[in-house]
Every structure is written in structure tokens, then in C-alpha cells.
Amino acid sequence: MPATIRPLAEGDRAIWEQMFQSYAEFYKTSVPEGGFDTVWGWIFDPENDFWCAVAENADGDVVAFTQYQLMHRSLGGGMTCYLSDLYTLPDLRGGGVGRALIDYVREFAKARGLPNVRWLTQEFNYPARRLYDTYSPKSDFILYNVPV
Fold first, then answer.
1. Distance separating alpha carbons of residues 145 and 49, to the nearest angstrom
2. Which helix (H) or strand (E) holds 64?
3. Whether the predicted pLDDT of 1 surpasses 70
4. Residue 20 and residue 22: Cα distance in Å, rounded?
């Protein structure tokens, strides 16, 4: 499916919220109270290194989004780009929209002289991993998430 990738716009709030909620549900979590406003604020705060891009179909409908940010890389002594979130409407998965969004973020990183783009996914997210594995084999790192 051909898609046009562009930065999230102020007028996209309703569809972004719907897709962000669906994204949270996919990962069996929820957006906390005030969470939509917080993330929306990060995206549109020029002092915050956090962005969102959306994919539009030929009719101009938003069908996917990705959110990404800068991340310090202490061992490399610089910054890298961390792809935080990627969501495509379920009936469009496997059609090239996710790849178009990843490539958009890769171009963003390249234009800023960043060495790579990183992201996480769940071990059993096999449909997404089929796409991700075309970029690079999965790493040997394991994520720990410790509540405080």
C-alpha cells in the first residue's frame, strides 16, 4: 500500500488518540490518566526531543504512526534515535506502511548524523518481527523493567 509519511499535525489529535489507545491495548496496558495530554505535549514542545510521524493512505486517512526520540548512548559517547512506538491499523499490516515509517525515522536519524535507530518489541510479536528482522537480526540484550 502506498503511504505518505508526514509529521503529526495538531488536527490529528482524535485519530492519534484512537490509535495510541489501540497500541496500548495490543501490549495489554493502558494510557494513564493525563497520558494522552503528556505525550501530545512532548510531541509539540520544540524543546523536547520527541516526535511523531503518521502514515496517510491515498485518501488522506491516517492509518499508522510512529513516535521516536533522541537517546544518550554512553558507550558510544553520543546520541542515537530510539523508535518508541510503531502502530499500523490491523487490516493494513504487512502492506509496507510499517516499513515506510521505519525508513522515515532512519532518514531522520541519518540527517542528524546519528549512528542508528533502536527499538524494542515483544519476543512473541512475530508479525512485527518479520518486518524488523529484515533490518537486522535481534540483539542478545534482555530488557528489565523494575518498579520503584
1. 23
2. strand 62-73
3. no
4. 5
Structural domain contains residue 21: yes
Within-domain flag for 141 = no
- What residues does 70 pair with on adjacent strands? 81
pTM tops 0.85, yes or no: yes
Tell me whether residue 46 is exposed, middle or buried, using C-beta atoms within 10 angstroms of its C-beta: 0 to 12, 13 to 18, 19 or more. Answer: exposed
Mean pLDDT within 6-16: 98
Residue 18 belongs to a domain with what CATH number? 3.40.630.30
Mean pLDDT, range 76-83, rounded to an integer: 95
| Cell (9 digits) for 144 | 528489565
Q: Which of 97, 101, 90 is nearest to 6 (CA)?
A: 101
- Total count of domains within the chain: 1
In a domain, 69, yes or no: yes
DSSP assignment, residue 39? H
Report which residue type is found at 109.
A
The answer on pLDDT for 62 being more than 70 is yes
CA 104 to chain centre: 10
Q: Which residue in 60, 44, 53, 70 sits closest to 19, CA to CA?
A: 53
Q: Do the beta carbons of residue 84 and residue 43 sit within 8 Å?
A: no
